[in-house]
Design brief:
Blueprint (H helix, E strand, L loop, with lengths): L1 H25 L28 E2 L2 E2 L4 H10 L3 E2 L6 E3 L5 E8 L3 E9 L2 E9 L6 H12 L4 E2 L3 E5 L3 E6 L3 E6 H27 L2
Antiparallel strand pairs: 1-2, 3-5, 4-5, 5-6, 6-7, 7-11, 8-9, 9-10, 10-11
Length: 203
């Protein structure tokens, strides 16, 4: 009796093993593990345009005065004459290069603070280029402006402001220097107001 029971148990185990083997053979092969590093790179976004620009024909905000002069001398669109185009401004630590243009630019103004270029203003010649052409070119390269009104269209980020101003000029501005100068002006205005209040109080 015990022998018969052992034979039945052995037969059941053999059949169970055959069933598991058949299931394993019929199962599809497991997919290989995914490697995140091997994933295909995503295409760049259509909105991945530069916000603004800090340079015009090799003259760049933050450049020292000597480098800016060298760039102006090399560019045939400007007629830099030398020291007569350089002047000191009444504001402390500021100077200005004012240079005539020979083509699309009628005149260029390059302002320096502590020896570094922080503002460029380029007066353009309306006989050679028009506002609409410049605006559409800037939109194509930098996207829609952050601000647009009857006076200007402005592209801006934390470091730079670029504006197309009417009637027809381009302005580039270093916003970090601009903020520093504004703080200085506000502090000066506050000191003058305190002096005024002190004077009135002493009457």
């Amino acid at each position: 009796m015990d022998m018969m029971r052992s034979i039945i148990v052995a037969a059941v185990l053999v059949l169970a093993g055959l069933s598991l083997s058949a299931q394993a053979a019929a199962a599809p092969p497991a997919a290989p593990p995914t490697n995140p590093a091997a994933a295909e790179p995503q295409a760049p976004s259509a909105d991945s345009k530069k916000t603004t620009s800090r340079s015009f024909r090799g003259v760049e905000l933050g450049m020292d005065r000597e480098a800016a002069i060298a760039a102006l001398k090399k560019d045939p669109i400007f007629a830099y004459r030398g020291p007569e185009d350089l002047s000191l401004l009444p504001s402390p630590n500021q100077s200005l290069i004012e240079v005539s243009g020979l083509s699309f630019v009628k005149r260029g103004y390059f302002q320096f603070y502590e020896g570094k270029l922080w503002t460029m203003i380029l007066e353009l010649d309306p006989d050679k280029v028009d506002h609409y052409s410049i605006f559409t070119s800037l939109v194509k390269k930098y996207g829609d402006p952050a601000l647009i009104d009857p006076k200007e269209a402005r592209w801006e980020d934390k470091a730079t402001r670029m504006a197309l101003e009417r009637p027809l000029s381009l302005r580039y501005m270093d916003m970090i220097v601009y903020g520093k100068l504004r703080e200085g002006e506000n502090a000066k205005a506050s000191a003058e107001e305190l002096d005024r209040q002190g004077f009135l109080g002493g009457l």
